[in-house]
Amino acid sequence: MSFAAPLFLLGLLVLPAGLALQLAARRRRRRYAVRFPGAPVAAVAAAAAPRWRRQVPAALLAAGAGALVLALARPEATVAVPVEQASVVLVTDTSRSMTATDVAPDRLDAARSAAERFLDEAPEELRVGAVSFSDTAQVLQPPTTDHEQVRAALSGLVADGGTATGDGLDAALNALQPGEGEDRPPAAVVLLSDGKQTAGRDAITVAQDAGRQRIPVYTVALGTPDGVVDGTLRVPPDPQALAQIAQASGGETFEVTDGDELAAVYERLGSQLGTREETREVTAAFAGVGILLLGGALAGSVLWLGRLP
Where along the chain do the CATH 3.40.50.410 domains lie? Predict the structure, then answer.
């Protein structure tokens, strides 16, 4: 929470001053009661109001005044709002190592499930595309707001072949290029892989190109060091290579060892890439609360005490 006109917050100092004046007035009333002995007889004759009824209107009055002072200071709140026409391409490794079962049920199925969770969490306005790569790269779905098309494209993923990480990134960048005469909206790439590059263009060079285009690449290293395929071939992930790709492009890198962690990363990326933080003034809310509190103080004082606060 921040304030556009913080000097008005000095008005909050009036509240303790008012409390001090109220306490002084009460002390004067007690001295008056001692000076005139007939006052206790009148107090006994009148029905005494519960103590809380005398305190609530004063508390509401103070809270309402405080809310109005805060409204004068023009409070601002940071909220997440959808990024209109933002585009994200999910780049999924479909090399043979993705058949390893160290991530249940296997790495590729875990990646597919996490991508579907990503689509569930992503704002409707977010344009999402899909690219797969093994020995070569393939654009499964250009960026679209029809997330069901992306889901259908991911359902057909099959793991086989090598790991052409650079080609996968290059295909994603090409899919994000705007049409002739159009401005490119905010864009990002989410790269999920489990192994070291074995074919195709150098991934770091492509990531540097993405950085120059201001397209960050968020990399996710999936798998454990104990992953194997065909019973004997070890296929540990290569988080260092993926971290270098993310750094070269201006993105972030993540390491996950099970499906739940992967789903959490994708959910976070869905909200992070599909929204942006924006500061909005919330003066009206504070003013409305202040008016309601003052109205409550007035009503309570009249109904319970028979006088204005």
Answer: 83-257
